[in-house]
Amino acid sequence: MEPAPPVGSRAVNAPAPHIIVALDYPAAEPALALARRLDPARCRLKVGKELFTRAGPGVVRALADAGFDVFLDLKYHDIPNTVAAACAAAAELGVWMLNVHALGGRRMLEAARDAVHARARAGGRRPLLIAVTILTSLAEADLREVGFGGPPAENVTRLAALARAAGLDGVVCAPTEAAALRATLGGDFLLVTPGVRPAGAGAGDQRRVLTPAQARAAGADYLVIGRPVTQADDPLAALAAIEEELAEGPA
Ligand code: C5P
After folding, report:
1. Collapsing DSSP states into helix, strand and coil, what is residue 26?
2. Does the CB atom of residue 89 touch ligand 1 within 6 A?
3. Is the pLDDT of residue 15 over 60?
4. CA–CA dist 155, 158 (Å, integer)
5. b/e for 105-122, b at 16 or more Cβ within 10 A?
6. Distance (Å) from CA 123 to ligand 1 centroid
7. Catalytic site residue 75?
8. pLDDT per position as a tens digit, 217-235
9. End-to-end CA distance of the chain
10. Best of 19, 20, 21, 24 to mutate for ligand 1, by most ligand atoms within 8 A of CB?
11. Predicted TM-score (pTM) of this structure
12. Does domain 19-244 fall into CATH 3.90.180.10?
């Protein structure tokens, strides 16, 4: 199923790359070096906590200035006023997508939504705003320890519905959760899935992985893929192989 072009999309008529390469590097230089070899028409880029904390907003601006759609993965979770201000700052940086924790609650989610929508009203490019529900690293026993009842999937569905009700554009989820969320939440809610591994690649520390084609078939709109590209001997060839796998569909 092809969702409507996202609001944050750079060019509405351009083919939308479904791959988001996670630039998990400890400094700006290797991230920018890889970006120089990549094509904004073929992938988007993700900047997470490590790179942002080491290299700061400059690296985000440099990637956006190079024409890339940047997903700023800082998972904001704080009081509504603070999160809204952080979202406004991210929007001013020119990011394409950013995220918050759904566990911040409805008022925090709505404050984040209002901050990014204000950006659009001011004539800027509105970033897509998505929520993290339950971290995929948490199992049922971990959830119980922090006071949550029920299996992770039940909590994920409830928090994704809350994010949707609060006017967010989508959620981050495990690829194995995508089909159920797509069925519950409908077609116009973005599903962004890490934990994707090309056929034949090592899973590393990821659990519950699907291949890119399986994740897309399960309803994922965007696939976050890090090490299979960034640590490949030939990152461009690795990306091309994933594109080919996506074009062929699930085995
Ligand atoms: O290298 P790999 O493909 O495992 O990278 C996945 C990326 O997605 C990393 O940046 C990781 O922090 C992020 N991520 C994840 N699992 C989540 C949420 C984010 O792997 N549940």
Report:
1. coil
2. no
3. no
4. 5
5. eeebbbbbbbbbbebeee
6. 32
7. yes
8. 999 999 999 999 999 999 9
9. 18
10. 24
11. 0.92
12. no
